[in-house]
Amino acid sequence: MIQIQNVSFDRAGKNILDVTELTLEAKQTIALIGPNGAGKSTLLSLMARLLPLQTGQIRYDYLDISSTSSRVMARKVGILQQHSHFMSRLTVQDLLLYARYPYHKGRPTADDHKVVEQMLAYFELLTFRTTFLDELSGGQRQMALVAMVFCQGTDYILLDEPLNNLDMYHARHLMTTLRRAIVDWNKTIVVVLHDINYASLYADQIVALKQGRIVFKGPPDQVLTPDSIKALYGVEVDIIEHQGKRLSLHF
Amino acid sequence: MRPFSYWLLALLSLLMLALVSLLVGAYAISLEDIFRQPDMANVMMSSRIPRTLAVLIVGSILGIVGCLSQSVMNNVFAEPTTLGTPQGIALGLLLTSVFLPEVGLVGTMLLGAGMGLLSLLVFFALLQKLTLSDPLQLPLIGLVYSAIWGAGVTFLAFEFDRMQMLAVWLNGDFATIIQGRYELLWGAFIIGLIVYWMANQFSMLGMGEALAKTLGVPYRALVVVALMMIALATSLVVATVGMISFLGLVIPNIVRQYCGDNLKHSLPWCAWMGASSLLLCDVIGRLLTHPLEVPANLVFAVFAGTVFLVMLWRGDRRAF
Predict the structure, then answer these.
(1) What ipTM was estimated for this complex?
(2) Which terminus of chain B, N or C, has fewer Cβ atoms within 10 Å?
(3) In chain B, what are the domains?
(4) Closest approach of chain B CAs to the CA of A200, in angstroms?
(5) Each residue of A61-73: pLDDT tens digit?
(6) What is the spatial order of strands in the sheet that A213-218 belongs to?
(7) Of B200, B214, B217, which has the smallest distance from its Cβ to A48's Cβ?
């Protein structure tokens, strides 16, 4: 369970996030949606301790992020950011092995190699294991980065717009793989999504943010209505039911 | 071929090159001479062997240091020369030699390293404030940055009549290396071994601050340790033979093409390639205007400049 209380964040004298109370149940996929500049990435960065908390508390199963050491937190929560700038001439298997750092501290053991093998197989990356990251296509690269976060072996995984720049096939492939992996590996995922229909199809819970505040929260088939989407994005949409899921037509 | 056979080939070629380096110089020495003529054995022991060892150590440590700089700065164009480190070190050496001449060679070298570390830390802090839209901006900023340190050190050298020393520090040349004048370089050799021993940790720096932090890597502390290694090793090189510019830039970039950014894999190859290319340049320098010599730094600059231009020509900013 993730508990967020009284978290507020100012940048350059301007308030960009103010969440009084948000509780996210474990073993679920939680989609964060909202217009650009709503504070989704800021919230995720605060949750991952990439930004220092200015006020309030964030707790993962009663582990308070401001009083827990980063070594412990590195085994509790992992994040995949939107832009990861790093020296990208790493092979896929090296990348996955790096994600085991919280356990091996730079001296990988047989256990770490075992986890890497497992994840390479699970995310269908065996054929690319010795390929350099900068030689992969966008879809393969994203899959490798997702596998990396899973290798970290954390209960909680935060993903910031993982579908960015992916084509229809790869976006769908990534989401179905994620959906399966969450169940198989017992994860709790918080994912920022721009496509409301992906949120509706794959998330258990939707949390909508606008101007740094939570507008609504709940299961997709309850909270996705033409009115709520109009309130969130300022766009008139039709909501249709397809195989028991709500889809928004916003064209 | 298995990696082992690559290494065998690499070591053999380096040995051959070292042998050539032992025999080439103002006096050409043949293998027989060493055993027949005591003079020649003397030349060997006091000049040729120290010189060859010095080149090997300098070449390999600068390759390693360049590779490490690129991981720390997260930029493929980073290396001591593009970060203004030699100028910072020269300032430290100069100030020490003027105001604290009694600290001796090791003390001077350490104070030089201290100033080099300061210049690296300031540059690193500066880099955190900037968002580079193109990695190529780093050497441009570095150029301006080293010019600032360079202006300061040149002014002081001029004031204290030490211009000649400054020229020696900034232009690597092995002609003056004799027994008793290069042994400090073994310190750089040891630093090279330490960097390799910590390669897995230093590789994490290349992941960038955010990713490293979420993996529980003590990022800041590791950065400081890495910068200390870079400053110390570079200071040892500058104080004994003088800087070889851009070795740390071109060698690691050629190596990463094949070995990637995992330092555990790439560092040994950076060391090998740095050592063998510098030795080749030094031997060429000895032959070009025989019996006079062209400094190794100059010969290497021609080679490095060409490689650097090719890098830019290909326009691939991520990797060479």
Answers:
(1) 0.86
(2) N
(3) 49-314 (1.10.3470.10)
(4) 29
(5) 989 999 999 999 9
(6) A77-80, A156-160, A188-192, A29-33, A205-210, A213-218
(7) B214
